[in-house]
Write a structure and sequence with these properties.
Pfam families: 2OG-FeII_Oxy_2. One of its GO terms (cellular component) is mitochondrial matrix. It comes from Laetiporus sulphureus 93-53. Helices cover 25% and strands 34% of the residues. The chain is α+β, with helices and mostly antiparallel strands. The N terminus and C terminus are likely disordered. It binds 2-oxoglutaric acid. 2-oxoglutaric acid binds next to strand 5, strand 10 and strand 13.
Length: 271
Protein backbone atom coordinates (compact mmCIF):
# COMPACT_ATOMS: atom_id res chain seq x y z
CA UNK A 1 0.00 0.00 0.00
CA UNK A 2 1.31 3.43 -0.89
CA UNK A 3 1.11 6.30 1.51
CA UNK A 4 -2.07 8.28 1.43
CA UNK A 5 -3.67 6.41 -1.41
CA UNK A 6 -7.20 5.17 -1.50
CA UNK A 7 -8.30 2.09 -3.35
CA UNK A 8 -11.66 3.78 -3.94
CA UNK A 9 -10.77 7.04 -5.62
CA UNK A 10 -7.02 6.87 -5.92
CA UNK A 11 -6.51 9.50 -8.61
CA UNK A 12 -8.69 12.21 -7.10
CA UNK A 13 -7.33 11.54 -3.66
CA UNK A 14 -3.76 11.43 -4.88
CA UNK A 15 -3.99 14.91 -6.35
CA UNK A 16 -5.41 16.06 -3.05
CA UNK A 17 -2.90 14.45 -0.81
CA UNK A 18 0.34 14.25 -2.76
CA UNK A 19 1.38 17.78 -1.77
CA UNK A 20 0.57 16.90 1.82
CA UNK A 21 2.62 13.72 1.62
CA UNK A 22 5.73 15.63 0.58
CA UNK A 23 5.32 17.84 3.61
CA UNK A 24 4.45 14.97 5.87
CA UNK A 25 7.70 13.17 5.26
CA UNK A 26 9.83 16.28 5.61
CA UNK A 27 11.33 16.91 8.99
CA UNK A 28 10.59 20.57 9.36
CA UNK A 29 10.95 21.96 12.84
CA UNK A 30 7.30 22.80 13.09
CA UNK A 31 4.54 22.38 10.58
CA UNK A 32 0.88 21.53 10.86
CA UNK A 33 -0.34 19.45 7.93
CA UNK A 34 -3.60 17.79 7.22
CA UNK A 35 -5.10 15.50 4.57
CA UNK A 36 -8.47 15.76 6.28
CA UNK A 37 -9.65 18.56 8.52
CA UNK A 38 -9.98 15.87 11.18
CA UNK A 39 -6.35 14.73 11.04
CA UNK A 40 -3.35 16.93 11.75
CA UNK A 41 0.25 15.88 11.60
CA UNK A 42 3.29 17.74 12.92
CA UNK A 43 6.38 15.86 11.69
CA UNK A 44 9.12 17.58 13.68
CA UNK A 45 7.23 19.24 16.47
CA UNK A 46 9.62 18.37 19.30
CA UNK A 47 13.37 19.02 18.96
CA UNK A 48 15.85 16.36 20.07
CA UNK A 49 16.47 18.05 23.46
CA UNK A 50 12.70 18.19 24.01
CA UNK A 51 12.29 14.54 23.01
CA UNK A 52 15.01 13.53 25.46
CA UNK A 53 13.22 15.36 28.27
CA UNK A 54 9.82 13.83 27.46
CA UNK A 55 11.23 10.34 27.08
CA UNK A 56 13.24 10.61 30.31
CA UNK A 57 10.05 11.63 32.14
CA UNK A 58 7.96 8.84 30.62
CA UNK A 59 10.59 6.15 31.24
CA UNK A 60 11.01 7.30 34.83
CA UNK A 61 7.26 6.93 35.44
CA UNK A 62 6.95 3.57 33.71
CA UNK A 63 10.11 2.14 35.28
CA UNK A 64 9.06 3.10 38.78
CA UNK A 65 5.80 1.16 38.39
CA UNK A 66 7.50 -2.09 37.40
CA UNK A 67 7.97 -5.08 39.70
CA UNK A 68 10.98 -4.94 42.02
CA UNK A 69 12.68 -7.79 40.12
CA UNK A 70 12.95 -5.61 37.00
CA UNK A 71 14.09 -2.57 38.94
CA UNK A 72 16.77 -4.72 40.57
CA UNK A 73 17.87 -6.08 37.20
CA UNK A 74 18.39 -2.52 35.92
CA UNK A 75 20.37 -1.50 39.00
CA UNK A 76 23.45 -3.46 37.89
CA UNK A 77 23.69 -1.64 34.57
CA UNK A 78 26.36 1.01 33.97
CA UNK A 79 25.19 4.57 34.72
CA UNK A 80 23.12 6.26 32.02
CA UNK A 81 24.70 8.83 29.71
CA UNK A 82 23.80 12.42 30.52
CA UNK A 83 20.81 13.47 28.40
CA UNK A 84 22.85 16.13 26.61
CA UNK A 85 25.18 13.45 25.19
CA UNK A 86 22.42 11.43 23.56
CA UNK A 87 22.36 12.05 19.83
CA UNK A 88 20.05 9.19 18.81
CA UNK A 89 16.90 9.08 20.92
CA UNK A 90 16.74 5.27 20.65
CA UNK A 91 19.85 5.07 22.84
CA UNK A 92 17.66 6.02 25.76
CA UNK A 93 15.96 2.62 25.77
CA UNK A 94 17.56 -0.37 27.44
CA UNK A 95 17.48 -3.73 25.69
CA UNK A 96 13.98 -5.27 25.64
CA UNK A 97 14.77 -7.82 28.38
CA UNK A 98 15.15 -5.05 30.97
CA UNK A 99 11.50 -4.07 30.66
CA UNK A 100 8.44 -5.97 31.83
CA UNK A 101 6.61 -5.98 28.49
CA UNK A 102 3.24 -7.72 28.48
CA UNK A 103 2.66 -10.21 25.70
CA UNK A 104 -0.80 -9.03 24.77
CA UNK A 105 -3.58 -6.78 25.84
CA UNK A 106 -6.55 -8.75 27.10
CA UNK A 107 -8.50 -7.80 23.98
CA UNK A 108 -5.55 -8.77 21.78
CA UNK A 109 -5.13 -5.35 20.17
CA UNK A 110 -1.74 -4.45 21.60
CA UNK A 111 1.19 -6.85 21.55
CA UNK A 112 4.42 -6.60 23.58
CA UNK A 113 4.02 -3.37 25.48
CA UNK A 114 3.86 -1.72 28.86
CA UNK A 115 1.61 1.20 29.61
CA UNK A 116 0.45 3.52 32.30
CA UNK A 117 -2.25 6.03 32.88
CA UNK A 118 -0.61 9.20 34.13
CA UNK A 119 -1.99 11.87 36.39
CA UNK A 120 1.23 13.70 37.26
CA UNK A 121 4.62 14.36 35.68
CA UNK A 122 7.97 13.98 37.46
CA UNK A 123 9.07 17.17 39.20
CA UNK A 124 12.83 16.55 39.00
CA UNK A 125 13.44 16.75 35.25
CA UNK A 126 14.97 20.02 34.15
CA UNK A 127 13.16 21.72 31.30
CA UNK A 128 10.06 19.51 31.50
CA UNK A 129 7.53 22.27 32.37
CA UNK A 130 8.27 24.26 29.20
CA UNK A 131 8.06 21.14 27.01
CA UNK A 132 4.71 20.28 28.58
CA UNK A 133 3.54 23.84 27.98
CA UNK A 134 4.32 23.46 24.24
CA UNK A 135 2.45 20.18 24.21
CA UNK A 136 -0.57 21.62 25.99
CA UNK A 137 -0.81 24.42 23.45
CA UNK A 138 -1.65 21.76 20.83
CA UNK A 139 -4.61 20.28 22.69
CA UNK A 140 -8.00 21.13 21.19
CA UNK A 141 -9.67 21.26 24.63
CA UNK A 142 -9.02 20.75 28.34
CA UNK A 143 -10.16 17.99 30.71
CA UNK A 144 -7.86 15.34 29.31
CA UNK A 145 -6.41 11.99 30.26
CA UNK A 146 -2.84 10.99 29.42
CA UNK A 147 -1.30 7.61 29.01
CA UNK A 148 2.14 6.33 28.10
CA UNK A 149 2.44 3.33 25.83
CA UNK A 150 5.84 1.71 25.36
CA UNK A 151 6.13 -0.86 22.56
CA UNK A 152 8.90 -3.46 22.60
CA UNK A 153 11.13 -3.77 19.52
CA UNK A 154 8.69 -6.32 18.13
CA UNK A 155 5.56 -4.78 19.66
CA UNK A 156 2.63 -3.60 17.55
CA UNK A 157 -0.91 -2.28 17.74
CA UNK A 158 -3.56 -3.96 15.61
CA UNK A 159 -6.39 -2.03 13.90
CA UNK A 160 -8.97 -0.71 16.34
CA UNK A 161 -11.16 2.24 17.21
CA UNK A 162 -10.69 3.50 20.75
CA UNK A 163 -13.57 2.67 23.06
CA UNK A 164 -16.14 5.39 22.40
CA UNK A 165 -17.46 5.02 25.92
CA UNK A 166 -14.13 5.77 27.54
CA UNK A 167 -12.96 9.02 25.93
CA UNK A 168 -14.18 11.89 23.81
CA UNK A 169 -13.84 13.03 20.22
CA UNK A 170 -10.08 13.49 19.82
CA UNK A 171 -6.82 11.61 20.39
CA UNK A 172 -3.38 13.17 20.22
CA UNK A 173 -0.27 11.00 19.92
CA UNK A 174 3.37 11.99 20.44
CA UNK A 175 5.96 9.54 19.15
CA UNK A 176 9.36 9.01 20.75
CA UNK A 177 11.97 6.45 19.70
CA UNK A 178 12.00 4.28 16.60
CA UNK A 179 9.99 5.44 13.59
CA UNK A 180 6.83 3.37 13.22
CA UNK A 181 4.01 3.63 10.69
CA UNK A 182 0.47 4.64 11.56
CA UNK A 183 -2.20 3.09 9.37
CA UNK A 184 -5.70 4.53 9.22
CA UNK A 185 -8.40 2.40 7.61
CA UNK A 186 -11.91 3.64 6.97
CA UNK A 187 -14.70 1.48 8.35
CA UNK A 188 -17.03 2.78 5.64
CA UNK A 189 -15.03 2.11 2.49
CA UNK A 190 -11.58 0.92 1.55
CA UNK A 191 -9.79 4.21 2.09
CA UNK A 192 -6.45 3.76 3.86
CA UNK A 193 -3.67 6.12 4.79
CA UNK A 194 -0.17 5.42 6.04
CA UNK A 195 1.74 8.01 7.97
CA UNK A 196 5.34 7.65 9.19
CA UNK A 197 5.76 8.62 12.83
CA UNK A 198 9.35 9.66 13.45
CA UNK A 199 10.49 10.58 16.93
CA UNK A 200 9.29 14.04 17.87
CA UNK A 201 6.24 13.92 15.61
CA UNK A 202 2.72 14.55 16.82
CA UNK A 203 -0.60 13.55 15.29
CA UNK A 204 -4.14 14.48 16.16
CA UNK A 205 -7.17 12.48 15.05
CA UNK A 206 -10.61 13.78 15.78
CA UNK A 207 -14.29 13.41 14.89
CA UNK A 208 -14.62 11.53 11.57
CA UNK A 209 -11.10 10.07 11.76
CA UNK A 210 -11.45 9.18 15.44
CA UNK A 211 -14.81 7.42 14.98
CA UNK A 212 -14.77 6.13 11.39
CA UNK A 213 -11.19 4.98 10.93
CA UNK A 214 -9.41 2.11 12.63
CA UNK A 215 -5.85 2.96 13.58
CA UNK A 216 -2.90 0.64 13.96
CA UNK A 217 0.84 0.93 14.59
CA UNK A 218 2.74 -1.42 12.33
CA UNK A 219 5.80 -3.32 13.34
CA UNK A 220 7.38 -3.18 9.89
CA UNK A 221 6.70 -1.50 6.59
CA UNK A 222 7.62 1.24 4.17
CA UNK A 223 5.83 4.24 2.89
CA UNK A 224 7.30 6.43 0.17
CA UNK A 225 10.87 6.42 1.43
CA UNK A 226 10.13 6.12 5.15
CA UNK A 227 10.92 2.71 6.48
CA UNK A 228 10.05 1.06 9.77
CA UNK A 229 11.85 -2.03 10.93
CA UNK A 230 10.41 -2.33 14.40
CA UNK A 231 12.31 -0.89 17.35
CA UNK A 232 11.15 0.42 20.68
CA UNK A 233 8.75 3.34 20.56
CA UNK A 234 7.04 5.17 23.36
CA UNK A 235 3.92 7.19 22.67
CA UNK A 236 2.29 9.77 24.88
CA UNK A 237 -1.43 9.52 24.18
CA UNK A 238 -3.72 12.31 25.26
CA UNK A 239 -7.49 12.08 24.99
CA UNK A 240 -10.34 14.33 26.00
CA UNK A 241 -12.63 12.95 28.67
CA UNK A 242 -16.29 12.38 27.87
CA UNK A 243 -18.49 15.12 29.27
CA UNK A 244 -20.43 13.75 32.30
CA UNK A 245 -23.78 14.16 30.48
CA UNK A 246 -22.63 12.01 27.57
CA UNK A 247 -21.16 9.45 29.95
CA UNK A 248 -24.44 9.20 31.82
CA UNK A 249 -26.37 8.75 28.55
CA UNK A 250 -24.01 5.99 27.42
CA UNK A 251 -24.32 4.22 30.75
CA UNK A 252 -28.10 4.32 30.58
CA UNK A 253 -28.20 3.11 27.00
CA UNK A 254 -25.62 0.35 27.25
CA UNK A 255 -25.24 -0.65 30.88
CA UNK A 256 -21.81 -0.43 32.49
CA UNK A 257 -19.04 0.72 30.19
CA UNK A 258 -16.25 -1.74 29.68
CA UNK A 259 -13.11 -0.99 27.80
CA UNK A 260 -9.47 -1.80 27.43
CA UNK A 261 -8.00 -1.74 30.87
CA UNK A 262 -4.49 -0.67 31.60
CA UNK A 263 -2.16 -0.14 34.48
CA UNK A 264 -2.92 3.05 36.26
CA UNK A 265 -0.88 4.68 38.94
CA UNK A 266 -3.64 4.11 41.45
CA UNK A 267 -4.94 0.84 40.06
CA UNK A 268 -6.56 -0.35 36.85
CA UNK A 269 -9.24 1.54 35.01
CA UNK A 270 -11.16 1.38 31.75
CA UNK A 271 -9.94 3.40 28.80
O1 LIG B 1 0.79 4.68 19.99
C1 LIG B 1 -0.01 5.21 19.22
O2 LIG B 1 0.30 6.14 18.45
C2 LIG B 1 -1.44 4.70 19.17
C3 LIG B 1 -1.89 4.12 20.45
C4 LIG B 1 -3.24 3.47 20.37
O3 LIG B 1 -3.63 2.98 19.36
C5 LIG B 1 -4.08 3.44 21.56
O4 LIG B 1 -3.64 3.82 22.65
O5 LIG B 1 -5.26 3.05 21.41
Amino acid sequence: MAAFTSSRSASSLRSLIRPALRSLTSQSQFAGHSFSPDFTYYPGFFSLPEQRILLAAALQKLDSAEPRSFRRRRKDLPPKKPLSEISDIREMFLADEYYNFEEGHYDGVIKRFREMHVSSWPSDIEGLPSVIARLQALLPSGNTQTHFLHLASDGEILPHIDNVGASGSWILGISLGATRLLRLESTEDKTEFMIPLPSGSVYLQKDSIRYNYKHSILQRGSVDGSHSDGGQRLSLMIRDRLPPTQLAKLKTAKGPITGQSFLEEEGREAR
